[in-house]
Specification:
Elements lengths: L1 E9 L12 H14 L6 E7 L2 E8 L6 H20 L24 E8 L4 E9 L7 H9 L6 H4 L7 E7 L8 E6 L3 H8 L5 E8 L6 E5 L4 H5 L9 E6 L6 H6 L6 E4 L5 E4 L1 E2 L14 E10 L2 E2 L3 E2 L4 H18 L18 H10 L7
Helix pairs in contact: 1-2
The structure holds magnesium ion.
Length: about 375
């Protein structure tokens, strides 16, 4: 049986700043979906990551299904009303268009979808990030699917030995999807050359080469500023990853997040800070909104999901959170100078642009 997983996430308002959604908002969204989504999906979950609410649906309607997307969009619009009624910060922030046009992609929310024929023991992980951008997935997914230093299955497990195909998007091209397909391991250096440019090139999907119809990964690739034409918040990406057997193991995919690598995002979307793995339903940190990632692993049968395993809720990750905290402080100590603050063309708030324009007039060429 073919099942589709649709993971759709948006920031529609948070309590006292960019922290987390209110209980009333979360409950309102849950109730809306339970009431309006009857018969549309097999199973679903609603949870939050920092100030973003995630909706995860399992269904039999395929990717980019109009009704599923509309349900998510309407749920977020309904939630926006609640957020506004409570005076929540950034109410409706990620809902960039007023009326639904058939696909929630390009309207603000982050979307990752994957359709597959369920394996006998189908293991899935969903990752949700807050205060960062889609390119934040580049390094961890490269390490998990292309680097035997991090992912021993590439050496040890026969179905993984042929490697994986990476679909990489050029997010600067706005008219259509500009995409390149590269194979690991042959094209490893080409893949790395693109993935290092995290603000432009992002992984869209990863596929098995042993079983070319089997998709391992789907990542949301939205860049909100391209939709709105101005800064409206960080993209806060999500990903769906299938694990085990013909794919890397759950612990290989989870393990790479121990790097706590530096990503663009953080407070005012304007800094390089480490990606901290946190527990499910964590608020954003008031230490400058350090970028965070949550991981939920589950099994699925006939579209029915088990309970989530909270991947970063065990003792090992306490140490990684300490490491990420230290990396955060060390970079933060550098204040406004690069690479602590992002380069000019990525500074998301207009103030610095206006300031530099004003200063330009005061420069004089002296001999
Ligand atoms: Mg957010």
């Amino acid at each position: 049986m073919k099942i589709t997983l649709s993971l759709i996430k948006a920031d529609i308002g948070a309590v006292g700043g960019h922290t987390k959604p209110s209980k009333k908002l979360l409950e309102g969204v849950k109730e809306f979906i339970a009431k309006k989504g009857k018969g549309l999906f097999v199973d679903h979950r609603v949870f939050f990551t920092g100030d973003d609410i995630s909706l995860l649906f399992s269904h039999k309607r395929g990717v980019e299904d109009k009704k599923i997307h509309k349900l998510a969009f309407e749920a977020f619009k309904h939630g926006t009303k609640i957020a506004k009624s409570q005076g929540l910060y950034g109410a409706g922030q990620d809902i960039l268009k007023d009326s639904f046009s058939g696909n929630v992609k390009g309207m603000g929310p982050a979307v990752a979808e994957i359709e597959f024929k369920e394996r006998e023991n189908e293991s899935v992980i969903v990752f949700t990030m807050d205060k960062t951008e889609p390119g934040a997935f580049n390094l961890p997914l490269y390490l998990a699917f292309a680097d035997p230093m991090y992912s021993p299955g590439l050496l040890l497990s026969p179905p993984l030995m042929k490697g994986f195909t990476f679909e990489i998007i050029d997010t600067e091209y706005l008219k259509a999807e500009k995409i390149v397909r590269l194979n690991a391991p042959e094209d490893l250096y080409d893949i790395a050359a693109l993935l290092r440019e995290t603000r432009r090139y992002v992984i869209k999907s990863i596929w098995s080469r042993e079983y070319p119809k089997e998709q391992a990964v789907a990542v949301s690739i939205t860049r909100l500023k391209h939709i709105a034409g101005r800064y409206v918040g960080k993209d806060d990406p999500v990903a769906i990853v299938r694990a085990q057997k013909i794919f890397p193991a759950t612990e290989e995919i989870g393990g790479v997040f121990r790097v706590a690598h530096y990503v663009g995002g953080d407070t005012r979307g304007s800094h390089n800070q480490p990606l901290m793995p946190v527990k499910l339903n964590s608020p954003a940190s008031v230490h400058y909104c350090i970028p965070i990632v949550q991981g939920a692993a589950f099994s699925i049968k006939n579209g029915v999901m088990t309970e989530f395993v909270d991947m970063f809720d065990e003792p090992f990750w306490e140490y990684i959170r300490e490491k990420a905290s230290l990396k955060s402080i060390l970079m933060r100590d550098q204040g406004f100078t690069e690479p602590s603050m992002l380069p000019y063309d990525e500074l998301e708030y207009g103030g610095i642009v206006e300031r530099l324009k004003r200063l330009e007039k005061r420069f004089k060429i002296e001999k």
